[in-house]
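Two proteins were folded this term; both appear here.
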Amino acid sequence: MRFSKDWKDYELLDCSCGERLERWGRVTLIRPDPQVIWQTEKKHPLWRKADAVYHRSNTGGGHWEVRGKVPDRWEIGYKDLTFNVKTMGFKHTGVFPEQAVNWDYVRDLITKANRPVRVLNLFSYTGAATVSALKAGAQVVHVDASKGMVQWAKENAQSSGVIDRPVRWIVDDCVKFVQREIRRGNHYDILIMDPPSYGRGPGGEVWKLENEIYSFVELCRGVLSENPIAVLLNSYTTGLSPAVMQYILSSVLSPTFGGHTESDEIGLPVTSSGLVLPCGATAIWKR
């Protein structure tokens, strides 16, 4: 399993009985996690003193119970990056800390390329991967269908000191954007894809990852440059294994570009147990 050991402002203190106990800077949160099916004893004292707890509703969604001092928003840092976080609906905070291992991976690719690198970040959420790639010196096109998420990404770029770097902020459906980029003849050296498990497009189109991911990867092949560097495909869909995503990338990209593929779960180290909590998967094609 791949994970970063370099977080200082985030810590997974413990996890048990369907919940995570986390430290986000100075704020401690308890959030549900359906993969935490073990029922180990909750010995850490902050289980009883967390600043906020997210409670799921039986009818869907849920709410935050604020018990301590939780700002409307606050900053956390990872290496030389700064992110704005807040307690959002559906338990999120705006950052997926397990993705730090992928931010580092892409930065290393950009640094070692020794040439200008164009990155296309699709389903890019609040832009942590975008900010990281900008820090490494790449040109980035950041695409997400949510105007609010793109604005949040701009704020993260501002906080990280890269708002003036070469970046395009695009609010659009990712499939339609890629189709237009192919018609325009625009190409990219690195693709980062973090598609949702399920969603609806602006016209009511249904997106279900298992049904759409193969054709989407095929489509994205058309925006790769003649000498591409890498494609990263992330998934939080339980039924889509790392090996399946690796097979898709290999079957679509290797016949045209060669290279090799790999895949693995990504996770977060748990302080209390010394174990690692699996938090999703990434498949990587690399030239």
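Next, the second protein.
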Amino acid sequence: MLPRIEIGMFKIPSFAFMIWLGVIAFTLMTIYILEKKENIKKEITNRILMVCVIGLAALAGFAFLFNSLFHSIASGTLKLGGITWLGGVLGAFPVMVLCIHFLCPKVKGNALFYFNLLIPAICLGHFFGRIGCFCGGCCHGGVTDSVFGVVFPEGSLAAITYPAADGRSLPVFPTQLFEAVFELLLFATMMMFYKKLRERFLETYCFGYGIFRFLAEFLRGDNRGATGFALSPSQVMSIVLLLIGLLLVLYRKGKVLKGVFAKMQAYREETNVYGVNLRGEVGSILKRMKALQQYGAITDDEFARAEQDLTARITQKPVIDDDTK
């Protein structure tokens, strides 16, 4: 545990420092994925980064609300304060998808795909956040006599919850580091198998993190509030995350929310995945080609073949694969 980073006269809280590192890492990785991996226009990237600012605010707000709710249930009285990552995730994710849909008109109909591309960056940012939790001494595990046990210094939350005779904490599981390693591995897996997983990053996160977090909760030893059930708050939210992953799988297959699926497909017929208005572009090209036909620069057969090919692109379902780069 390193509560503060001291540089000369400056004393920087380690938790805050790592959170800012996480935000920077998330931003740089988002730009890299959108502009380098996907060749997406800078205009769209900037719009999505604007949505990310809204998403960060939503994440903080929902993390505060859910944490306050669970602690209020545990105490039986209104108790405000603290944050919970999963609560922030469950609230911020739909907010960001909706914001991409409404605030990024050039990608209308593909908001879910674009949000999906942010998931590796979210994992990387959360990795730094969990390192910050370890440095700050929060989100610790329960007491253990295993080789994984870590003793936190006097004054830390772990020492207050599980005090030893010398004022430090008893050995506890460093669940912050366990989660940081998992997030880093999840990020690395997504980047290593980018081509295969790029359309399924969100489902991968829902199932992967949902299962991990549900199991990791058995090792946690800090006060996270209550739900009124046998499961911890994070276990309940992990189940919700798993259900969202299942819902996404069924949605992509057209099994649920068929009305929404059809409407998004209609939007995609108007706009391709990189923000080009197909109907407008095709109409403009055909007008120029018609003029060339009238002047005899191209034959009637050449114009007819071009018209057929370009018109087909309007109604073609935009498949997001490697050939679209």
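The chain is about 65% helix and 0% strand. The first helix runs from residue 14 to 37. These notes refer to the second protein only.
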